[in-house]
Amino acid sequence: MTSGWLAPDLTMSATDYRALLDAALDLKRRYPLQTEFALRGRTIYFLFYNASLRTRSSFQTGLSRMGGHPVMLDPHNVIYTPALPEAEIPYSTERIADVARVLSAYGDAIAIRMYGEPAGWVYGGAHRHLEAFAQWASVPVINMECDRFHPCQALADVMTLREQLGGLTGRRLCISWAYSGSWHKPVAVPQSLLLAAVKSGMDVTLAHPPEFALDPEIMQAATQFASQTGAQVRVTHDFRDGVTDAHAVYAKSWCSLAHLPTRRGDAVDESAMLAAFEPHRDWCVDTQVLRHAAPGAGYLHCLPADRGQEVTDEVIDGPQSWVFQQAANRLHAQNAVMAHLLNPGCLA
To answer: What is the residue range of 116's domain?
Structure first.
């Protein structure tokens, strides 16, 4: 497996992660005039199995402004859909092993976004798809969000937290589930953020109804990283308890892993999923909820936000919202990831 940005959440040490965070903040300060040739002549192939505004726009803009060449490949229409052996369909799909080797011969990296329906909603299925690309590619593979991790979002998140709070050691972050009328959001964002935050030294309270627990492997890894950095991880099933005294509140919806299928071809237990959501409509960040947080606390969300369900307009558009700074940092975080993989010298 070649080096890449597949699951740095689990594989990158806290020390290395903090060094990359510092480099990303420095790269942002120098962008764009001092970075315009950082990736000159580099080509990255982008495969989006899912809709995207921020990820697609920020990657394409950042690579272009640094002198590189982004190539967007639609895995549903423009090319034969890359597939694992068990999901192949004659003259409709092409085995991932073949696609990865061909693209490696042409360019410098492959970036993939895949979760949910394209992987049949089997938890971990999309991540296995990315792992197959990494196994066969001879260039780095970048995870632009799968069903387990969203490392690019997490790096932008901790950049924003550093800019707003300064040093993160001992700062309190609440990562909370929030209600949505759709159950379709994966657990990738809270899982990557949890790991990034404890690597950065933050004390994290994870708040969610009992039905929305995260992957036990991720929770165990968070505890291990926290023991290395002196951070603390706490879980509560009380929304306001989670928010109380937090310096930052990151509240968004995610699905219940318990109601996803375990085999491709099986259906999501949608009635059970909806039944898990409905009793918790009050898990919405409004100005009253935010008053429980520490003075000056900020609200974060990866976007798109379900306004009036996850968060009210008054909060997301108000003075305590860090959401659009956070969205802007996607560009700079991903520039740092691409430079880290393809031209690390420019981060020195």
So the answer is: 8-149+330-346
| Strand runs labelled E in the chain | 43-48, 69-73, 81-83, 93-95, 109-113, 141-143, 172-177, 203-207, 233-236, 248-252, 298-300
Burial label for 72, CB within 10 Å (0-12, 13-18, 19+), is: middle
CATH classification of the domain holding 339: 3.40.50.1370
Residues 264, 335, single domain; the answer is no
pLDDT, tens digit, 9 for 90 and up, residues 19-43: 999 999 999 999 999 999 999 999 9
Q: What is the percentage of the chain residues whose pLDDT exceeds 70?
A: 99
Complete edge-to-edge strand list for the sheet that includes strand 109-113: 69-73, 43-48, 109-113, 141-143
Task: Report residue 76 as tokens.
Answer: 């549903």
Task: Report DSSP letters for 271-282, one per residue.
Answer: HHHHHHHGGGTT
Query: Is residue 3, in this structure, part of any structural domain at all?
Result: no
Question: Which positions ≥6 away from 334 have C-beta within 8 Å?
Answer: 55, 58, 59, 62, 152, 155, 156
Q: Which amino acid is at 346?
A: C
